[in-house]
Amino acid sequence: MNRIVRNFINEAILTGKQAVVVGTGKSGLAAARLLDVLGAKVRVVDRDETVGEEKLGPLKGKAELVTGPHEKAHFADADMIVFSPGVPVRKLAPVLEGIPARNLVSELELASWFIEAPILAVTGSNGKTTTTTLISEILEKSGRRVFTGGNIGVPLCEYLLDMEPAEIIVLEVSSFQLQNCRLFKPHVGVFLNFSANHLDYHEDLDEYLDAKLHLFSRMTLDDTALLHESLHPLLDGRTFTGAHIEWFGPTSRFEAPHLLGEHNRSNVEAAWQAVKRFGVSEEQAAEAIRAFRPLPHRIEPVVEKNGVLYVNDSKATTLDAAEAAVHAFERPVRILMGGVWKGGDVAKFAQGIEGRVAAVGLFGGSRDILEPELGRHFSVTWDETLEAAVRRQASLAAPGDVVLLSPATSSFDQYKNMAERGADFKRAVEGLDG
């Protein structure tokens, strides 16, 4: 437990205050634990009526649990309301009427109030996890004590309670987390890219972009904002930060044999520009980058059978991510796509992959959105399941082809998450002859 948390406890700053935590996910429960330690009265609310007291873990019998549709009465007495990532505040507006905006915070915002170590935060529509993990590996291999978390791994509130102090806090941060941040301030902020995403959550692209830019709003000239060159049209002339701004793009500065594609050359450059602010030498970075391997479900080679390479890119939940994956190969690609639609320009995507894609194998949801436009440019088939789509494309593939799962959608039509979808792809590939 860190020094500032102990001071809050000793000075009884939150003792007796009513805190309401919305959502019983990992981040929400971490926030509830922290608030309980700080002395607040904690109420946890969740729309899911199947959530039971056992979900509260060590807070069972201490925190109040309310399930079912949210009501004004659940929030009316709150001194603070903390939102788990993925809980859309906009949709809760009717029950939050009259509650000051300053009382609404995200789990990330709450935790950041207690952090003393410098924060390095990464956001973007695609590539966040790879870049965040690469940054952490470079820092660790150069001898720094690092905490890595936020939108991946351990919530920041949990770090405060349970983990040894780190020299540098490295966070992946999503628009969900940032939307309810006002005071969160990293020392280095990285914005990798921006494309249509999460339009099932955000009202429109403007709201999505505004949420991303909360990352930079409290930064000063002592801080650095690293922005990808593709963001110039969006950000030029826009006042969104007081930080020192630097732009980056893909380079061949480092040898990264396991990170394929131009987008990963950008990610590598972003990682270098970020870590050098913490005293890492180019030689130290080069060694860590050379050894770094892609994370599961991110342009992950599975196996080559009968001259056909099978690649799992289940994490690609947007059209931009799928296009970047296609461009990572100098071989004909048979791309597998389908799931829950999140938005994007299918016609632009088709133009961007023309000449590189031999066929499109659709599966599951979004056929009505993808097939009409893609069918004008490519041979398109549809199967109900991913396994059937894999088998069909395997039967049609020629030696030298790549069968690439890069769905450009979320997985929730048939799977719990993208990892389960990726695992199903691997299972289907393992069952192929050859």
TrEMBL record:
Cell wall formation. Catalyzes the addition of glutamate to the nucleotide precursor UDP-N-acetylmuramoyl-L-alanine (UMA). Belongs to the MurCDEF family. Residues 122-227 form the Mur ligase central domain. The gene is murD. The keyword ATP-binding applies. It comes from Pseudodesulfovibrio methanolicus. GO terms for molecular function: UDP-N-acetylmuramoylalanine-D-glutamate ligase activity. HAMAP family: MurD. The lineage of its organism: Bacteria, Pseudomonadati, Thermodesulfobacteriota, Desulfovibrionia, Desulfovibrionales. It is found in: Cytoplasm. Its EC number is 6.3.2.9. This is UDP-N-acetylmuramoylalanine--D-glutamate ligase. Pathway: Cell wall biogenesis; peptidoglycan biosynthesis. Its main location: cytoplasm.
